Each structure stands twice: as C-alpha cells, then as structure tokens.
Batch of 2 targets.
Target 1
Amino acid sequence: MRPLLFLLAGAALAAPPAVDGLLAQYTAAGAQPFDAARGEALWKKTFPDPEGGAARACTTCHGPALSSAGEHVKTGEPIDPMNAAGRLADAEKIEKWFGRNCRWTYGRECTPQEKGDFLLYLTGGAK
Amino acid sequence: VFHALLALGVGAAWLTGDEAPAIGWHTAAGYGVATLIAFRLAWGFVGGRWSRWSAFPLLRRAEGPGHSTTAAWSALAAIGIVAGLVVTGVIVLGGEELRGPMAGLPDPSHAVVMHTVHSALAWAILAWLGVHLAGVAKQSLAERQNLARGMVDGKKRTSEPGVPARAGVAALLAASAVGLVAWTGTRELPEIGDPLPADPIYDEACGECHLAFPPRLLPAASWERTLDEAGDHFDEDLGLDPDVSAHLRAWLVANAAETRIDEHAVRAAPIDGAPLRITETDPWLAAHEGVPDAVWESPDVKSRIRCKSCHPDAAEGRFDGAFAAIPSPEDR
C-alpha cells in the first residue's frame, strides 16, 4: 500500500492538474489506489476485433511507446506522442477520448479504475 | 517582338491545356497573353506607323505598302480570338476554381458554358494559324520580300519614311503591363480569394481523426445522416456530446453543397441517397478517374480519405486540381 501511495504522490507532482482532478474523481467513484504497471499492461494488451479484423490495442493507433508518434489506423491522421508537451491538459478531452477509444478497442466503457491506471501510466507513473 | 511573344504565349497555353500540373503554366501564359493583347490594342494608337489601327485598311482597298485588307482582317481576327480566350479563361478560372482576378464572381453554371467556348476558341486559333501561315508564305513569294522579317522590327522594306514610335508612351504601357501581371499573379495564390467557411468546433470534433471535410462536398441529407449515425461512424461510436452534435448539425447543414454555387458544391448538391462517404459520390469518382489503384495503396497516400497526400490545398478545403500531385516515392 505504501509504495503505491508514493507512486501516486510522485505522479501527482508531474501530472497536469486535469489528471489530478480526474484521479480524485475516479477515486470518489470507488476506484482503489491506481497502478501504473496495470495501466501499462492494459494499454498494450490486444483484443480481438468482434468483426474478425486485426486485433486491437491502444498501441494500434498510438504507436509502440509513449514517445512514439501515432497514426489513426483507418485515416492515417497523425497522433502526437502520448508524452508530448501539452497532452492530458483538458479533463473534458481526456474523458471524451477514453469514451471513444475504450469503446473501439474493448467494445465497452472503461471503468474508473482502468482510466486511473492508464492516466498514471501515461503521466510517467511507470518509472 | 510582339508577334514572337504572342505566338510563344498562345503556343504555351495551347500545349499546357487544362490538365494538372501544367495548369499553372497555362494560366501564367494566359496572363502574359492578356498583357500582350492590352499592349497591342494601345500600340495601335501610339505605336509605329504600320502598327497603327489607322494603317489597317479594313474598309478600303489597300494602297501602297502596309497591311493588305485581307491581312488586316486576319490580324484583327487573331487578336479577337485571343482576347476571347483570355476573357473566357478568366471566367472559367474564377467560376470553377475560385481563383484569378474574378475569383468567386462568375456563376459556375456560366463558367461551364464559358469553358466550352474557351475550348472552341482554342481550336479556332489553331485553324486560324493554318490560314495565317499559308497567307504569309503566299504573300512573301508574290512580293518577293520576307514578310516574316517585319514582325521583328515592325518595319516595312520600302523607301517611304516611317512615323517614329513614342518611346515614353511605350515605357508607360510596358510598366502598367508588368503591374497587371504582378497583381493577377498574387491573386493566383491558392490562399487568396474568398475564404471557405470554417468552424472551430467542427475542426476539433471531426478534424482530429480525419480532414475536416468541407461541408460543400456533400448535400445536407448526407450530413444529417452522418450525425444521426454517429454512434456507428465507420465502426466507431463517436459518443458526441448532444450540444456538440446539435452545433455540428446546424453548421454542416448551413454550409452544405446546396448553399453554395462554386464548382464543387454545384456538382455535389444533386447527389441522391445521402451517401456517407465523399469518395463514393459521382463527382469524386469523376474527378479521380484514371488514378491507378496502386496510388491509393502506396505508403505516401495510404487511403482515399487522406486528401492531403495529393492536395496541398486540402486543409483550406479547395481541392483545386491544378495543385494536386500524386506523390512519387522519390519525394520521400
């Protein structure tokens, strides 16, 4: 428990205020302490396409590493690396993309626990 | 000198035609020719003796040196045809492509007619050229002098004294001609002209995954359907916020193909069946006919939805065929 709290505190220092606010919101919604390693595992896990196409993961569009520039798998539109400056600054946008991308990748909404784990991983909590 | 430049300009315009990417040269040649014609019309009042309109025996029998009646009519016909080409060309450019000095002014349906007239005049000038060459050859033989030489220096091989040209007026004409070309040249830049409607909410909501397509490329029914089916938008549930969705609907319908009169909109407005993909519509298919399948799959293009792979003006929503270029692997 204690190392996890340390991680959370460490991430909170570096994380944009929007992320802090969302983490507090997810905790209030019943999430347990967040785990960046769990977020990373889910980020990279592939899920079958219900219609038989190629398996999907976050990395399908976002690229293999957080520092990779990505590309929309269908339209080819460039996507900034997840660790690019100015990313994750707007809580509303984060929620919008969690909604759209969880539904596409997993076929369902993400839980507050999963979203918190992702945010911790994306803001550098994995180090 | 006038003759050589005019022949060069018209010849260049003829050869560059209306196919990309040579259209840039075609319009440049057009502006050059326009300048020459303007110069020649004025030169007819202030130029050298044999160049003056007063020296053109249009209604009387030609006497002595100078143009014969036939040659005078012939020169006038050429100037008329070329002037017609310039005027119709500018109307086509302004109506169909929203470029040039008349950008956005002509009604596109008129521009389409003008395009036909423009093509007909292009054939007319070719036919005229045949007659012209035959005539000059015949007269040169008959008069035993090289008429072609007069085109270089404007002088007639005769002992009669000429009337000197007015150098100051000539310089003024040349300067204004350069100014005209410079002015039209800047109007030619793709970013100048009527800006197309844009909306920051549309750009963000749609433009983060693909080009925020100009609403004029589809009729209102297509945009309504796109929003109605946003829960399954090409395999994605967009989950649009209701306020955002309502804003997009209002803006897209207000700027859909039916609301505009430019070339793209006029072609898109009659599309039936509310298609969701622009790339399945007749105007798109017609405009991209002949693009080999391999292009769409090449790593530089990737997909039909990647307009900007070939259209540098896609972000402004213009899609002027004149600027489109299929990327070649060497460019990478």
Target 2
Amino acid sequence: MDRTAPPSDGPLPAAEPTGELAEPVTGPPVVAVVVTRDPGPWLEEALESLTGSDYPSLTVLVLDAGSAVDPTARVAAIAPGAFVRRLPPGADWATVANDVLEVVTGATFLLFVHDDVVLDPDAVRLLVEEAYRSNAAILGPKLVDYDRPEVLLEVGLAIDRLGVPHSGIEPGELDQEQHDAVRDVFFVSSTAMLVRADLFGELHGFDARTFPGAEDLDLCWRARVAGARVLVVPDARARHRRADKLHDPEDAVSPAAAERSRLRALLKSASGWSLLYLVPIGFVLAVVEVIAFFLTRRAARARALVGAWTWNLRNLGDLRAARRETQAHRRVPDVDLRFLQVRGSARVRGYLAGSLHTEDRMRALSRRGRSAADTATTQLRAPATIAALVFAFLLLVGSRQLIFGRVPVIGQLPGWPGLSELLATFTSAWRYVDLGSTAPAPPDLAVFSLASTLVLGASALARTIVVVGALPLGVFGAWRLGRRITGPGSAAVVAALAYGINPLPRNALAAGRFGALVLYALAPLIVVGLLRLGGYFPDTPDRRRWRLLIGTGALVALTTAAWPPALLLPLVVLLALALAEPLTRPRGAARADGSVRALLTGALAVTGIGLVLLLPWPLAYLRAGDRLAALGFAFRVDLDLSDILRFQTGPNGAGVSGWIVLGAALLVLGLASGPRLVWATRAWILALVSLAIVWGVARFAPDTLMPAVEGLLVPAALGISLAVGLGVAAFIEDVSRFHFGWRQVAAIGGAVALSFPVFAFALDSLDGRWHMPGDDWNENLAWMRSEAPDGRFRVLWLGAPAILPVDPVVHGDVGYGITNNGPGDTRTSLPPPNGGASARIGDAVDLLRARRTVRIGSVLGPMGIRYLAVPQRAGPGVDRTDPAPATLLVGLAEQLDLVRLEGPPGLDLYENRAWIPGAAVLPPRAAPRGEVAPLPEALADGVVRPVLDGRRVRAGTVVWSEAYAGAWQASSDGRELPHGRVFGWANGYELSRRGTVSFEFANQWWRYPVVVLELALVIGAWLLWRGSARFTLPWRRAPKDET
Amino acid sequence: MTRRARAVVIAVVLGCLLGAAALDRGSSAGGGDGDAFVALGPRVPEAAAQTAAWYCAYGTSEPGGRADERVFIANVGTRLARARVSVSSGPDRAAQMRTYDVQPGAVSGIRVADILATPEPGVLVEVTGSEAVVTHAVTGNGDGAIGPCARDAAPAWYFAAGTTVRGAELWLALFNPYADDAIVNIGFLTDAGPLAPSELQGFVVPGRSRVTVPVHDQARRDNLVATEVIARRGRVVAEQSQVLDGFDGRRGIALSLGSPGLSRRFEFATGSVSAGRTETLVLANPGNTPTSATVRTRLDGGALEPEVVSVAPRTAVSVDLGARVPAGVGFSVGVRSPVPLIAETLTVQREPFPQNQRGIATAVGERRPARRWVVAPSRVSGTADLVAALNPTSRPVTVRFRVRGVADAGLDAEAATRRVPAGRRVLVNLGELGVAEGGLLLVDATGPVVVERDASGNPRYTGFTVSHAVPDLDH
C-alpha cells in the first residue's frame, strides 16, 4: 500500500506545528513521536523507517530536546512531511515527550520511538491492528539488535513485586520465533511504544520524575491500574541500535536514577495494602543489598539503593500527589496484575534477575559488547565458578532454617534485645552482669547497636544477618587472601571453598560460639592486612599503608570485641611466619620477599590500634585476676589429635573426609615449587602453630581452661585451606612442567578426593541449620519474664560449660552464669573481668558442687537468684547430651530450699524458695552486716517484701542486690537513705518509715564522656582511614636520595 | 626453594604430625567427674561443709507411741556447732524448729516429743559451724534401738531382714524432707516370691512429711520380707523398724537405716552366739540375675570354711550364722557376691539373758571401710556396751579408741590401742575402758576398718541394739 502525501503545512524549517493534523486517508491517525537530542547518523534511517511504513495515516513529529545543531534540515531531507518542534535544552526525554499533550490533537495513537530505532515497514500497521483486535491501549514491538537482527533484545517486560524489571530474555538469545505470540505484558519499553492518545492524555503522559529508568514502566503500570491492556506484538519488529543520547549512553541512566525511578513507580502505583508489606520487605532487602554491595566494593550501587529511598522520602509531598492521582484512576486491584509479575521471593528474585537477566543487565552486557557477554558465559561455565555456585547454593540450603526461621539462642550466641536496650546498656555506667560491676560495657554492644540501626532497629534480623553472614564472609576473605597468594583464578576459589567447607564454622554455629564465628569471618581479611603490612605482597603502595594499618586494626578491634582472644591473632601469624622464615628464605638471600621485622611492627601496630579502638574496655582486663572467663577462657579441650586434625569439634563434618582435606593440603608440599612452595610452607606452619596450641593443651594440660576451640583452630583452617588452594595452583601450573609421574596422578587423585568433604558439607546442609537446635531454652523459659513484676530476680545457669547459654565462669568442672529476670540476652554476656562481689556466686557454686550445704537457696537468695537452670544439652531436641557433673546434680537434689519445677526435657529447673527480690525490704536488722553467707532463720516466706516502683513499703532494711558501691543511692520520698554494706557484698539502706524507694547510680555522669571518647576514637580512625592516602608509615618511607 | 628445602619442609610438617600422633595415644581426658563416686550413707561431714543435714526417719513423738524417739547430736569438730532441729508433721503444717548449740566433743540428746508431739515426726537436723554426727534412738515394746540418721535422701533404698510372721510388725518409714512430693514404688522380696502391692506403687510421699507403711499389712505372715523402695520422682529417706511381740519368744524393737544402694561386699563386725542369742544373716537379691554369695564367718581365734549361698533373682534367703559357730565364740562376717545384693542381720537376745538385755536388733551390712569412725553417744549401756573394730583387709592395722575431750576439758583421752590382724576384729567394752556415758568415742585406725556397736542392758534405753558407727570418709 502506498503512502499518501503527508498532511503537512509546508516546509518544516523553523516552523511550529499547528496542532491540527490532516485528515487520514485510511485508518486511525497515528503520530510517531521521535524525541531526539544531538542525533547521530542513525536518525535518517530511523526516519526513513517511519516514512517507509506501510501504515497510511502516520505523521511524524520530531521533538528536538535542545540539540546543539538544529536537526530540522536533516529531518526535512528524509521526511519532508514531518513536523519538527524544537524545545529549549535541558529538558529530559519524558518531559519533551509529554509535549505532545500540548501540541497534538486528533491523533488516535501516539507512537513513541527513540531516534535510533528502525521499524519494519509493517510494524506500525501491525501494532494498530492489534490494538483494535485486542482492545489494547499500549503496545510494543519485538526489539532486536540493530546489527544482529537475529538476536533478541526485548519482547515485553515483566516486573517482580518490587518493580524490578524482568525481561525473560537470556543475553544473546537468538530469535527463533520462540516468543512470537501476542500476549499481555506488564510493560513495554519506550524504545518503541504505541499508546492510545486519549489514555495518554488521561494519564497526563509520562511522569518526568520517573525518568530515566522507569518512565515506560510507570506509564504502563498506571495504564494497567486504570484497566488498560498492555501488549507485545512480536510480529511487529524494530531494530534497536542502542545509541540514543537520551537513553543509551553509559552516563544516561545512572544506577541511582534508575533505582529511585523504579521505587517511585512502585510507591505510586501499588495499592495501599500492597505497600504495607512491600515497603518493609523492599527496605530490608535493600539493606541486605547495600551490605552486599559494600562488601563487594560496589559502593556506587550501594549508594544508589540508599539514594533511592532518601530521594523518595525527600520528595514525599510530590510523591503523595502523584500517587493520589494514580490511585484515582484505579480500576483493577493489584491482585489482578499478579499474573504479569514474577513469582517467588520478589526482592531476591529481582536481585538475581537484576544480576543476570534484566533489561538493565542486558543493556550493560550489550554496552560492554558481545565479547564481555561471551566472557561472562565462559566464566560461568568454568569449573571454579560452578563450584562456587554449588557452594553458594549449599550454603543457602544449609542456612535456610536460620534465614527464614530464627537463629536459636545457644551457647555464646545470645539474643539481641531492642536497639534502645542495647544502647542503654552500652552507655550505662553500671553493668547488670552477675552481681553488678562498674567495668565498662563491652564494645560489641555498640557494634550490635550499629548493626541493628542499619536495619531500622530490627535487632533480631541484624543478628541473623551477622550470624548467617559469617560463613560467606569468611569464604570471601579467604578468596581475597587466596587471590593474593595464588593469583586470581581457580586456585583462589578452591582455597576459599576449602575454607568454606571446613566444619569449623558449622560446628561453631552448632555450639553457639559467636566469637569463633566472627574470627572465622574476619581472620582472612586480617591476615591479608598483616601480610601486606609485612611486605609479603609487594604491590601495596606505600601511600595506602596508613589506611591498611587502620583498617586491619579496626578488624582486629571488631573481632576482639566479639572474642577477646582474637587480639592474639596478629601475634600468632607473626609467630608462624617467623618460624617459617628459615625454611622459606632463598639460598644466600638475607630474607624472603616479606619481612618478619616489618610484620612484627605491623602486628604490634594493628594490635595497638585494635586496643585503642576498644578503649576503655581493655583497661578493665588489667584486673582480670582469676576470672579468665571474662576473656573467654571457659572451655576444656576434650579432643584427640584425630578430631583436631579433622576439625571435628562438633556434630558437623564427616569423619574420614577431614583426612582428605588434610591429605590434599599435604600434597602441595610435593607438588608446588618456587613461590607457591614458599607460601605452602608458610600456610602449613601457620596451621601447625594453631594445631599445636590446641593439641598441646588437650594432650598435656586437659584441665586447663581455654577459649572456644573453634576459634583456636581458625588459623589452622585458614592455613590448610591456603595449602589446598596452592595445591590447585601447583596442579595447574607447576605440574605441567614435570613429566607424567606421581605428581600428576596424585594431583588428579587429590582433586577427586576433595569431592568427599564437599559431600560431607552437603550432608550437613540437609537440616537447614547446620545442626543448630530448632528451639532454645530462652523460648522454653520465656514465661519467666512475666514474673519480673514480682520483683527483680536472677537465673543461675549451671552445668557443663560447653552447653550453657551464657558466657560461663568455670569452677572445677561446673560452669555457671547469671541472667537477669529470665533467660538472658547479650546484655549479660561476658562476665566482668574483675570478679568482685560476683565471686560469691562462685563460692556458692563451690558449696553446691562439693555438697557442703543443703541450703544453697539461702546462700543464693540475697543475690536475687530465684531460678537455677541446669541444661543437659545445648538446646531442646538436641540429640547430643552433655550432662552436668554428677556431684552437682546430687548436690542440687539434696537442697532443702530448692523446688524442682517441671522443666522442658533436657533442662533441670529449680526454684529457690529462699529467694529475696533484687530490691526488697527486710525486717530491721534482718540483713546481716558483715561476712554472713546464709540467711538467718527469720527470713522465712512472707517476711521479705519486694520494693517495686512507686509502691510504698514498710520500714526496714532495704536490700539492693547489686554489688556494693558507694555511688548507689536510695531515696525515699525525697530523702536519701543511709547506705551500708549488707550480706558482705550488697547495698543496704535503712528505711525508718514507710514510703516509696528508688535507686540511682550516682556515677552515671562520667560514662557519657567516656562514650563520647569511644565514639571520637572510632570516628577519628575512620577519618584517618578515609584521608590517610597522604600518610606513609614511618618505616616504609622511601629513603631519601643521598646523592 | 631447592629440593633440599622442600625435603626439609616436608620433614618438618610430617614430623610434627607424626610426632603428635605418637604422643597422642588417644588420651584427651576432660576434667569432668561424670564417674565420680557420689558418697551416700551416714558419714561425718567434711570440715568445710557450711551446712550438714541429717534425716531421722523413724520414730514417734506422741504420747504412748510405738517408738518414742530421741535424737543425739554429737559435735565431732573443734568449734561450736549450731543445730537446727525441725520436726515436720505433714505437708500442710509448718515444721516446728528449735536451735541447739553443741559444744565441741559434747553430745546433746533431744526428745523429739519436746519439740513436737506427733505420730509421724520427720526429723531434720541441720548443723552449721562444726562437724557433727546425728544418731537417734527409739524405745518401745520393752526394747530399744539406736542408729545413725541418714545424711542423704536417696532415690533407692534396700532392706533385707524383716519378718511378718505372727506377732511381728514391720514398719517402713519414708521421710521426704524436700518441698516437692516424692513418688515411690515399694516392693517386697519374700520367701514366697516377690510382692508389689498395687497400693504401694506410685506411692506419694508428700513434701516435708513422713509416712509410715505397715509392711505387715501388705506382706502377711511371711518369714522373710526384704524391702525395696524405688523413687520414681524425688528422693526419700527410708528406715525400717521390726517389732516382735514375743509370740515366738522373740520380743523387742529393731531399727535399720536402709542401704541406698546394692553392693558386692558387706561386713558385719559384732557376731556372737551364745545361749539365748541367735544371729541370722539375710541376703536379698533385688536384681534379675541369680548369684552365689560367699559368706565368710571369721571366728575370733579360728576360721570356718566359706559358705556359698545361692540367691535366686527377686528372692531373699536366710543363713543361720550360729549353726556352724561354737557357743561363746565371737565372730565377724563378710559377704561377697558377684552380683550386687543387700545383706542384713537379725540378732535376737532372749532368755537366759537378763530382762534388760533382751531384745532384737537388725543391722544392714557395712560396705564402706574407713580409717576413722565416730561412736555417738559413746556409751549407752552400763552392762555390755561393746564396740568392735573389724579389719577386713589383708594387712594388720592398729586401732586407737579415744574419747573426745569436751569443750574446755583438754585433749582427747586415749582409751585403748589395739593391733588387729588381717581379717580379724577387736572388741572393747566401753564400760571396762571407763568411757563415760553420753560422750563421744573416736576410733582411728591405720587402715580401713569397720566399726560396729553391740549394746545391751542400758537402763534408759532398755534392751539390746546393734548398729554401725559413723565413718569419716574424708579422713
């Protein structure tokens, strides 16, 4: 069909469109709107495709968005009948496109096309025909690559619940007509979009604030909400050159703009009910993504995500108005649009889609060219990548119950209270731990507060992220370390995976060893920092060394806050490398590539920085005395050499496969040569040092209290993993240099054998929680919290130290710990370094386990201990039992003032009938002054009255069962009460007449400047870290040229 | 690195691993004491104990009761002891308490009825400040009995000697000193077979109360009735009292503190057979494995061939110890069995013994030889108050009998020192040694011994009694 002469008002140069279109010959009038700015040479071809269209009623309108050179002449040359309208520069594509609302009347359809799109001659006709046939309002053609038309780019788009686009087209997917069916889609791209003009007007065109990135999504979404259909018509084809200056260049659509536009579209168009859950889920997932992006050093993407939320918050007023208007058009509920959206976990799927398959990714891949796509495809097919993906999958499977359920409170993995409680505890001058202490609060409370803040106060979520994230973070760190040592490629991945499948972190999870878990996660990064400081990686520029020093020191501080023995990690690494030095020094060389001396300086420096960042907390440890439990020394190493070498410290791991990893690590010593053998030697010496510490204690001093063995073995796990990675590197490079022989056979055998530990890892993943219990004692004993209104009380946990859900203090073979007003949380973690009054609890435990009293309740009563909990296993349902010592159980059973309660299976629970509330009034002179342990007989039931807030109590001796401190003050009706020491350790006040009583710690004031100081230290370090490029370490300054 | 360096590295690594493997020897003993022996039974409290509790289960304190009870608190230590005596009469009633100060070396005798008169008194004595030993005595039916109170409540108790023949009453007292209720199963091993009355299964002993079970109403007219008490929940103290009304010529009251466990060995130190005195050993096998127990009767100055006694599962058998022993010869008895069981003697003194020396006595065999024993009160009889020290070991030991000096009276007084050959015993008469009544006797030995008392003719506690002394297991 020939096209009729264009209904033009005449030549176009400098002419303004009249707004009146000529009568169409046949078919409804369509105006093709080409928005352009500084068009390239492709404009002509795009216009030619329009003028060559077989649709008879097509008018071309070119909107020039402020091109430097007026394109009118070029337009006129190709499409003399076209209209050109020039607009001032600066306007974006959507704003310019909306100009049609002003200047076009009488058109039935508007066809928006980019200036780099070449439509097939029949495309417009097919689109219009389908519009009528299907009563659709917005239609899009199939988009293919301009240069390779057989490659599909887009056949309509879907979104997930959070508005992330999903094309469903694989990168480089060939067009084999597999998508050639007209169908409803959620939206079509503005690259080529036929829109019913009346609807476009009704919707007031594009929302300019969703450009760039989501103007098409937003328009289609609003159309969908208004009840209009959006179709893709694959028979109509358009070739897309992806050169449009307004859309396609690298800087045209920044991630920040795209994210904020997408979020705006979501917030506008989703229904109110949908937003109730979409907003929190979207926010949480955004936080997770931000963390992931930061960890993977994609700060721009992270900032984009943060910026999307803040930008929309800043523009809340405008957003609300836009949303009101959108919702005013609503004819269709959200549920009717679900079939056009991607199913499943919306954000996660969106993230995966965004990473692999979305239009964004396609565009990015396209921009980087075909070769980049090929490279990505090749990498995905590489064995190491496949192994990494399998590992990631197993990690997800193995952690699923923790991610989607909860991380139980076991061992030294206490729950995190709310943000306000965390902050209040951290800033309190009095620690309500054991019987109370003035020791500074541990800095991990501040870290937990920060983590909770990042997820808007959802501390449980923050805890889950930290705990579950430790394993992948450790693997990431090992990969970075491995990459430095073995070079990029498979070897580093294998080293990381060997670290990842080591049963150590899984057993740390199963036993609730939080500190060991944190060390596992951060140790590789600390070792990287130390080795760089020691000059073992010569590529480190001097100008970055301050930054490195502070960064590594901060990591040491972070780890030490969670697990005090971690402070020694730099020194362990130093020791290992010093021992390895004679073995690795090249013949005749003064030293190897690294310098033990530099490492010594670096190790001391990072340790010092770590300590400084933790101030004033470490100062309290100067008085640790016999309470090494405060440093985590609370466990006995009950392992034989076989267990130690296989890292079989708990239920995870699978017997013989542990030997295979060890064997593979040993293999490297025979396979490797040159620098790889040097590094293998260092790795092995590091492992041997760590193994020797653990085995030496287990063999020669089994009664010695040590930190959690899972933490002690982390350097060994790291060393052996590196050795395995180096073995792979040697296999790839060194072995090929030898003639075929035992090396090749051994290397192949080693590679095959490594599948066994992977299998063991897979087996451990089956339960979805790495053998952590599904429940915990905290849940079972939650009812205790409802008893707090009867008066403050404490719970004394007793039993085998390995299974207590507290940081245990150990006397003999009995561990104990105190929690307040029910099961504990992280506020009662880490007993104060200086025993002080709290040592009396230990004395009482000694009495009990030696069966030297039948009235332990009377001894513990003044301490406010109301319940004694004796777990026999780490948590409910745990198969493995670790019974409390028999003498303790017998001792408890023969107590006359304890009542055995019906506890959950696996937990013996006693109530102390001689309990005195933490704040109580006793008859005058009933509270003995001086060193009197048991209560006198007068304190029978009914004699003691709790002191409750706002309630009047009778005259008597008021006992405040916190360790005696002069700063504790009690007042009654405005009068300060005389203060003295009762029961030899507690605070007592004489209340001469009936009244209310309140307590106050008078020294709270000094804690605030200390907190400010702590904050200043951290901020100062951060500022130094950020701006430290201009500093160089004194010992690293280049010597001056003496000439 | 050179080949030599590689070899050195491999040697170092493998050397370390193999060296550790050689030294490891699979030893990784933890510090746990899961297998630690948990001492049960009467014993002198250790010096560091803050509070020591004693539980006296059997006795009555109401006027005209069948077993009027008296408690003795003996201060073995060197500091003032403060004893709080609580007498509970049931779960719903508050216990009556009194506090007594006992000087070092002194023995305080307290009539339970003076604190609370009740038919079911459960007596709890808590001692602080010093080490003290608590015994109690019951009188009734023209006889008396004395024995140590229990130091522990236990989940199981066993008795061997008991009879419910015509004219016999067998009372089982269960004392639950704790606040929680205890639930026990009570069963009997009779010569007619095991018996588990349904009303005594899941038997509730309310907290802080004592319950007495008339065994003779459950196991009627059985010549041998061995008793086992197994707690399904909680712990109790079990004591048993045999009462014979003289129908078959035996008359008196006996008191036995049960054994909280079975054992493969028992020792009895005070055997003798004479006109009017008979001594029967009862062996009960509560287990399901038959056993052959070896009974060694060691005559003073002679020996008898060991007697092998077969004890079928869930049965009790008796052995007449006097059958093979010449009249007037003293002896001791040792029982060995490959299967744990319970052994107890029933001793009867009747005519021609004088009236005040007639009676019956039961004693569960001692299974814990010790180097120090406490006899308190030291002397209860003006006529025949014998203390026997048996050396069950294979080496001779020297035994010293000392009377503890009271408060300001100075040092302990040495009463006698005897050398005891292996497998022999020594017998001293406290009256002949000049030991005063109501004092405290310490028996120290250079090796493990078993000390037992055999007393009769006490003017205050009329009759005859046999009981073990209280060992000091920490000495």
